[in-house]
Amino acid sequence: MGKINPKESAREKRVKRIRKNISGTPERPRLRVFKSAKHIYCQIIDDVAGCTLAAMSTVDKGMIAADVKGKSEKARQVGLKIAELAKGKGIEKVVFDRGGYIYHGRVKALSDGAREGGLDF
């Protein structure tokens, strides 16, 4: 067995605690965020049906232009793109799931971008 990272296990506890209280519905799906050291990922999830309605990340093809610098600005661009995808599928309101991360830096930039793109949460 490998070593357990205390930061990761603490984040998993926070995820469980958050997920007890929020859930995505067809009318108001859940916008879930995951971040790694280099990239940020987000999904719009309908928990009732158990399916992902839209997804976007910094690793998607054609996502990031060469002139975008910095991880926070890339996260903002991901937020704008996920809002555009959601609008295309008729989704205007979502529940924000920060994934156990503090609402700061890249997570905040992604949510600000999604709000700029027209999502309401």
Topology:
Layout: H1 6-19, E1 30-35, E2 40-46, E3 51-57, H2 71-88, E4 95-97, H3 106-116
Parallel strand pairs: 1-4
Antiparallel strand pairs: 1-2, 2-3
**Name of the level-1 CATH class:** Alpha Beta
Largest sheet: 4 strands, mixed
Decide which structural class fits the backbone: alpha+beta
Outline the low-pLDDT stretches. none
Would you kindly provide a brief summary of this structure?
This protein has 121 residues and is of the alpha+beta class. 36% of the residues lie in helices and 19% in strands. The protein has one domain: Nucleotidyltransferase, domain 5.
What report would you give on this structure?
The structure is a single chain. This protein has a single domain (37-121), classed as Nucleotidyltransferase, domain 5, CATH 3.30.420. Helix content is 36%, strand content 19%. It is built from three helices and four strands, in the order H-E-E-E-H-E-H. It has helices at residues 6-19, 71-88, 106-116; strands at 30-35, 40-46, 51-57, 95-97. A four-stranded mixed sheet has the order 3-2-1-4. Helix 2 packs parallel to helix 3 (106-116). The chain is globular, with a radius of gyration of 14 Å.
Name its key features.
4-stranded mixed beta sheet, 121 residues, 4 strands, Nucleotidyltransferase, domain 5, alpha+beta, 3 helices, single chain, globular
